[in-house]
Structures are given as C-alpha cells and as structure tokens.
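PROTEIN DESIGN WORKSHEET
SECTION A - STRUCTURE
LENGTH: 200
TOKENS:
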C-alpha cells in the first residue's frame, strides 16, 4: 500500500514536471512585441493659380500648400506584457515524507494483511439484503503472537443485530491470522476495524 502511494506521488510529480516543461515554448510565444513608430509621408500637389475673375464678390486667396513630412507618434507605446506563471499549489505536490520506523512499517503491513483477510470473508446477510438494511459495525479484537484472535468486541453497533452478528462472524471466519512480525517483539496486538454494509 505504501509502495502504491509512493508510485502515485512519483507519477503525479513526473506528470507535473512534464507539463511545465512542455508549456515553456508556448509561454515564450505569448510575449507582446514592441511596435516602433511609423513614418508616414503626406504628399500634396501644388495647384496652379486660378485665373483672375472679375465679379463683385469678395476675392478669396488660396493658401500655398507645401510638401510636408510628418512623423506620426503612436497613441501609446506598447510595452511587452509580463507573463507570470503561477507555480502549481504546493499543497498538491508536497507531502510529508518521513522516515518510517521499521517496527511501524511491519505493523502497517500486518494490519493490511488482517484487513484484507477480513474483507475476503465478509458476507452480506441475505435477510439484511432482502430488507434493504445498511450500516457500519465498529469492532475491536486482539490478535495473539501466534495469529489467534481473542476478545472480539463491538465498539459501536450498526443498529441492526443481524449486521453486528455478521461482523463478529466475519472476524471468526478470518481466524487464523499470520503470526505477529518478530520485529514487533510484543505478545499481542489490538486491531480495530469498521465493517461497512451498503447495498449498491
């Protein structure tokens, strides 16, 4: 189970690193370009003077137009936008990885074996299934150094006698468990399990 967690974490970190690496070319292409001012020339033609007309109206003079070259400034200078990449949330990536005490690791492995063996022996009572009865039974029991069970006790009832009895019988059917690991160096261990009975 621990190896599955480590494999899962390694896969997630590898996937995150690859996604970040593959997204770098796309980020570089997102930078805006600075526009340089454009130079526009305006050419006008010089018109010939109009012939003089004699009439009673006011005389209007036409201003002489000269060729000008104007440089048009952009309305605002575009600055390259800063692209800020947010790092993935550290809470998703970081997990506390502590050195596990060999005794603790042996106990975790043993508990997994016990729970797996109980799960294999668990049966949903036909009568409870027929009546749609569901519940969770909380049990505590002792495993002696040779793997025998002792003192099976219901800590919290499911509220249904049929489910409670089925849970106790499940632990009895799962008996004999493997002997306690030698590195634990203890005469017995108490195990607590929750047997969940739900109809799918």
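SECTION B - SEQUENCE
RESIDUE ASSIGNMENT:
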């Amino acid at each position: 189970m621990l190896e599955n967690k480590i494999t899962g974490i390694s896969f997630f970190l590898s996937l995150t690193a690859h996604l970040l690496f593959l997204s770098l070319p796309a980020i570089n292409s997102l930078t805006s370009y600075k526009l340089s001012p454009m130079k526009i020339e305006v050419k006008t033609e010089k018109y010939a003077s109009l012939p003089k007309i004699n009439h009673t109206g006011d005389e209007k003079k036409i201003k002489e137009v000269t060729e000008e070259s104007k440089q048009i400034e952009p309305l605002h200078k575009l600055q390259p936008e800063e692209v800020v990449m947010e790092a993935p949330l550290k809470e998703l990536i970081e997990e506390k990885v502590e050195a596990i005490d060999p005794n603790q690791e042996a106990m975790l492995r043993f508990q997994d074996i016990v729970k797996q063996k109980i799960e294999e022996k668990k049966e949903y009572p036909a009568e409870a299934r027929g009546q749609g009865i569901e519940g969770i039974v909380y049990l505590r029991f002792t495993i002696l150094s040779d793997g025998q069970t002792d003192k099976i006790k219901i800590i919290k009832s499911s509220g249904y006698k049929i489910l409670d009895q089925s849970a106790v019988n499940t632990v009895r059917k799962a008996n004999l468990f493997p002997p306690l690991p030698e590195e634990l160096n203890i005469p017995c261990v108490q195990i607590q399990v929750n047997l969940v009975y739900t109809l799918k």
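SECTION C - NOTES
The helical segments are 2-28, 90-93, 102-121, 126-131, 161-174.
The longest strand covers residues 135-144.
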